[in-house]
Design goal:
The chain is built from one helix and no strands. By secondary structure, the chain is mostly helical. The radius of gyration is 26 Å and the shape is rod-shaped. The relative contact order is 0.06.
Length: 59
């Protein structure tokens, strides 16, 4: 069995880690914004229905 050893510079490894962490942060931020938007849309929808019912009761 042959063994292969790879040596890398710490600087290259750190840059790669930095880039992957930024990508993960962007995905997490997008996911969080999507959840927040869905939550707020639901609240707006509920408020709109309440207002509509109140207007219908006026007529």
């Amino acid at each position: 069995m042959k063994r292969c050893s790879l040596k890398s510079k710490d600087e290259i490894f750190l840059k790669a880690e930095e880039k992957t962490s930024k990508m993960k942060a962007a995905r997490d931020r997008r996911r969080m914004l999507k959840k927040q938007l869905a939550k707020e849309a639901k609240l707006i929808g509920e408020d709109s229905l309440e207002i509509l019912k109140e207007f219908e009761m006026l007529h």
